Amino acid sequence: xxxxxxxxxxxxxxxxxxxxxxxxxxxxxxxxxxxxxxxxxxxxxxxxxxxxxxxxxxxxxxxxxxxxxxxxxxxxxxxxxxxxxxxxxxxxxxxxxxxxxxxxxxxxxxxxxxxxxxxxxxxxxxxxxxxxxxxxxxxxxxxxxxxxxxxxxxxxxxxxxxxxxxxxxxxxxxxxxxxxxxxxxxxxxxxxxxxxxxxxxxxxxxxxxxxxxxxxxxxxxxxxxxxxxxxxxxxxxxxxxxxxxxxxxxxxxxxxxxxxxxxxxxxxxxxxxxxxxxxxxxxxxxxxxxxxxxxxxxxxxxxxxxxxxxxxxxxxxxxxxxxxxxxxxxxxxxxxxxxxxxxxxxxxxxxxxxxxxxxxxxxxxxxxxxxxxxxxxxxxxxxxxxxxxxxxxxxxxxxxxxxxxxxxxxxxxxxxxxxxxxxxxxxxxxxxxxxxxxxxxxxxxxxxxxxxxxxxxxxxxxxxxxxxxxxxxxxxx
Length: 477
Known about the structure:
The structure is a single chain. By secondary structure, the chain is an alpha/beta fold. Helices cover 41% and strands 11% of the residues. It contains 15 helices and twelve strands. It has helices spanning 2-19, 21-29, 42-47, 132-157, 171-179, 194-199, 204-212, 245-258, 277-289, 318-323, 336-352, 381-390, 393-403, 409-432, 451-466; strands at 32-35, 60-63, 76-78, 84-88, 91-94, 187-188, 265-270, 293-299, 302-303, 306-307, 327-332, 357-362.
């Protein structure tokens, strides 16, 4: 192998003058890629917000092409009085005479960053201070998301829409993380991040239009309800397939890096998503290529009906990031202040250091997985109720707002009444709007539709004519 590496280095040296700028680009692209998995303290993570970059010791470095010499890679060095060291690709490795296997895990679980306790009391001053205006706005949108979920869920149960996904119990994750991002940061969601899109300006009417699949739906009625997407809001369209969006976010982040754009991508996924190959491939690729991406895992305890203890033996998700050389942190997912502080710090780290960051947010899915699920078949109603009441992110954040003198019961009553009225109105309007023309199903794919697509369109139109009662009255051809 050393012979071939040596020959390759000689060939590239001779080719560089002939390749010109292409040779320079290739030479630069085969430079140094570094990994590190040093875990900072919570204090260090937040205090670095104002700094240009975070100090991080390098655990090991891979030297590519001419930067490592194959003939020396197996040399053993003897430090003065110290153990022998193997100069192996990836970094020096010390030898030991101890037959010592790495333990399956740490004796103590990785700590969880928290600022507000269940009573809305501050447990630390180590967080990003936010203004009363931003705090009230965050709470307003958390309440808006909760109200929308409640009423849209009821609409599905009434048969007015076919399907819905709620974010009950995860409102802080949605709104607080969105508040810490910028519109230039592309979002690659799963299907429980409608609050991120809500924060970015997607209106209640647009949500209703999408769920009813009417002609004002920007997806033209082609998507399942609650599978939103918006180019205007830099929010990639939701796919039901688990974790396929995670590698996409890494690719987008690498593109941002290549174009030198001062932004990062973020992707959301559940604990079940980390059991897929896409998750692991994405983390490794992001670490190797040092892509500015935030991996945000909502560890809500359940992958539909599969509890986390049946998914993995490790200490949750945070240690998986560390194993791939990705800076990682565990956060209380029901604490809006902690989420906001962690995401803001992660964004700055991703952009200034051009590196990926993993956030594991511990929360609980307060509702069913979707309207097609009955979660009481695999978990107790008492468990669900305890989490929804004792760990409610809205209740916790509201108590803090009231202690700060920024909120009161009158404001709460007025807000709730207004939000319910707005959501109901959006549903009533969306329900009356006609569906998109049938022809829209066959457009936007081919410049010139092939014959088989024309045949399918003809067959569909004939079916509608034969069975008009099987289709909505406001369904146009």
